[in-house]
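Lab manual, section 2.4: Encoding a predicted structure.

Procedure: take the sequence of the chain (508 residues), apply the prediction step described in section 2.3, and record the output as structure tokens. A sample record is shown.
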Amino acid sequence: MSDPSTATARRQALGALIATCVSALVVNANTSAVSILIPAISADTGTSTDTLQWAVTGYSLVGAAVIVTSGSLGDVFGRRRIFFWGLVLFIASCVLIALSQDGLGVIAGRCIQGAAGATILACGMSLLSAANTGKEQLRAVTLWGAASAVGAAAGPLVGGLLASTLGWQGLFWIDAAIAAACIPVTLLAVQESRDPTRSRSIDFAGTVLIAAVLAPLIFALTNGSAWGWLSWQTIGCFGITIAAAVGFVMVERRVRAPLLDLNLLRNTILVGATLSILLGSGTVNAIMYVVSLYFQDPATLGMDAFQAGLATLPVAAAAVVLSPLITPIVGKIGARTTIAVGFMIMTGSFAALAFVQESWTYALFVLPLIGVAAGMSLQNGPCSSLSTAAVDPSEVGAASGISNMARYVGAAVMTAIVASVYGGVGARRMDAGETDGAALADAFSWSSISMGIWCALGIALALLVARGVTRGPRSFEAAAAASSLSHTLVPPESVTRAVGTAGSRAPR
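Recorded output:
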């Protein structure tokens, strides 16, 4: 006769696996699909694509501010409870976006969705870790990462298909329905857990200041070309960013449980790996934003949303296929070399895209874009593992939080930069009398050059990474790093301290 407690534990582990994997798939699919929908949303709401860029950067901005805080809230008040409210917030944001008649509503909904998505991802990984041990924990993390990767790969295709059939709102209605289906599973089959050893202090001030750093910075990067880089508006935005950054450092030095442990910034390996993650993830997000606009513009390739989503499939497939090969590659040539090679491939691919001409067909874009995705995979996975292997085991959670924040910051800042370059160059070329197609090709070229420069800097950063690492990444860390583009790790030693409060009551 089987032990009832063992059967209950298995049921709860399965419940956690289903709820977290399905929600991670939906969140990542939603995130990657929105860029494809921008032209359709623009045409329907009458909002310019330049303004709707905030639907992408606003999501990442809020996610960067919330990702660590949501994990802390879960540790203190219960991971299932915070995960549940993340699902509720995600559903509400989907409904708000789908019902919006103007761009402002879409942007507001996407900002709310950034908080919801970050909460779901952060607490989802924590719930998985708490519900499993040993090999089952590794298996669960791997499946969660695979679901995240599949969602990210399928998002543009599914979003494009829905936009071309049901309308762009269809994606958000379907995402809301899937997220809603996760709620009863969460309430009935997922065990509550928290970290009783963690301070109950939550760094809300740090969260607000992160947003205060990023928002004016993105405003300046987005509008600096139109305002003038030396205008009072641009300088004022940069001034607010600097003041908020100083305030953030002062706050983090004084709070009991800081959002960012400033002592970790003395670790050059962690800093190098984190900056590499920021550059790699950020440039990929940025160029795919431009690709979605360029492919669908009538003056260039003139694709519809579904065709544009289908056109990105080889890019996503390259990242998914390469993921399981990363660990063997690192074993043969080393982490630092793998990271450097990844950035070299990305730099070369962006250099190839810099030669884009109005006459280019889709076939000429495929190999360079696959190269960008492959290079990102080569540098991102090893950097994720090294960022946690470079610190003491007790600091793994904090180091992983920094890495996650870097992904969101990179996506927000790099997308703002490339949107400014694409919009500014295109407008100037059109004013100079070029045809729309030629002007947009020049804009795409300079966007690629700007991203290539950042990736070239990443090659130099690789020299800082993996020097002096005292331990290799553990299997738990390696699996999470290799199988997902965004993850929040909970150190296994913290999981063993988690206190379960099983039950099917709704969070209060």
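Check your result against the sample. The chain has 19 helices and no strands.
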